[in-house]
UniProtKB/TrEMBL annotation:
This is Tetratricopeptide repeat protein. SUPFAM superfamilies: TPR-like.
């Protein structure tokens, strides 16, 4: 299966999937294809908070 590596929704959804799986560093790398490091860290922290992983969200 081929994909367009510049398609931002792909990276956003992939980052969400990785974060929900607890693969936070990989999620940040995926989110970096869409935005800046600070913004991507905020996305992962938010998912951690929703998932109840408050220690990781810090």
């Amino acid at each position: 299966m081929a994909y367009d590596g510049d398609y931002k929704p792909l990276w956003r959804n992939y980052g969400l999937l990785l974060a929900r799986m607890g693969r936070y560093e990989e999620a940040i790398s995926a989110f970096e294809h869409v935005g800046h490091r600070a913004e991507t860290s905020n996305n992962v922290d938010y998912i951690c908070m929703i998932e109840g992983d408050l220690e990781m969200a810090k």
